[in-house]
Design a protein that fits this description.
heterodimer; A: 112 residues; mainly beta; six-stranded mixed β-sheet; four-stranded antiparallel β-sheet; 53% strand; globular; B: 113 residues; seven-stranded mixed β-sheet; 11 strands
């Protein structure tokens, strides 16, 4: 069965430091992987996706994610965190049958 | 915003009321989705419509009734809800059968008294 795991409920990072939000997946076949961000009282916003090609994917607001097939991971990263990056982040996987599974979300706190 | 609008943004209803949530997308997509987001629970996919046909119904209670009159509009009709149905209801759209991202509306915050 396909699944997505975000092992951390919350991640705290000091402003200016690099940040990583973890995601691992389990899916048959080649995965399509996504990251979304949700600010308070808003819907989810698309950040980036991996379909094929380069393992390092660049997205909105300076975020990037690295696809690692051997570790079945798709961690979200940013070299220098901003206080405005504080939000809820969701990893999602879409399989060949078009089924979409979201992770439970990781709350990111950037400390001034 | 993202081209997906939802109304109302907030709704308070009693357990005996009937109300409807509306979603509209202006992105030319051919698939639309309803999600439920509760505190401390993962995002739950409720319904999927592709080309106005319901293609997925994830064991949602019958007190939730979706309707998709055309590819741009999606409704969620609510009746005799329970307090545990209080949540943020999110609508999304995408191109079906492509590895495309979904575009989400801002959600309707529903409180059932």
């Amino acid at each position: 069965a396909q699944s997505v795991a975000q092992p951390e409920d919350q991640v705290n990072v000091a402003e200016g430091n690099p940040l990583t939000v973890k995601c691992t997946y389990s899916v048959s076949g080649n995965p399509y992987l996504f990251w979304y961000v949700q600010y308070p009282n808003r819907g989810l916003q698309f950040l980036l996706k991996y379909i094929t090609g380069d393992n390092l994917v660049k997205g909105s607001y300076g975020f990037e994610a690295e696809f690692n097939k051997s570790q079945t991971s798709f961690h979200l990263k940013k070299p220098s965190a901003l206080v405005s990056d504080s939000a809820l982040y969701f990893c999602a996987v879409r399989d060949r049958d078009d089924k979409i599974i979201f992770g439970k979300g990781t709350r990111l706190h950037i400390l001034p | 915003e993202t081209g997906v609008t939802q109304t109302p943004r907030h709704l308070v209803m009693g357990m005996t009321n009937k109300k409807s949530l509306k979603c509209e997308q202006h992105l030319g997509h051919n698939a639309m989705y309803w999600y439920k987001q509760s505190a401390k629970k993962p995002l739950e996919l409720m319904f999927v419509y592709s080309l106005e046909e319901r293609v997925e119904n994830n064991s949602v209670p019958s007190r939730f009734s979706p309707e998709c009159p055309n590819s741009s509009h999606l409704f969620l009709h609510l009746h005799t809800l329970q307090p545990e149905d209080s949540a943020l209801y999110l609508c999304a759209s995408s191109q079906r059968r492509q590895p495309a991202e979904q575009f989400f509306g801002p959600g309707t915050r529903l409180t059932v008294l």
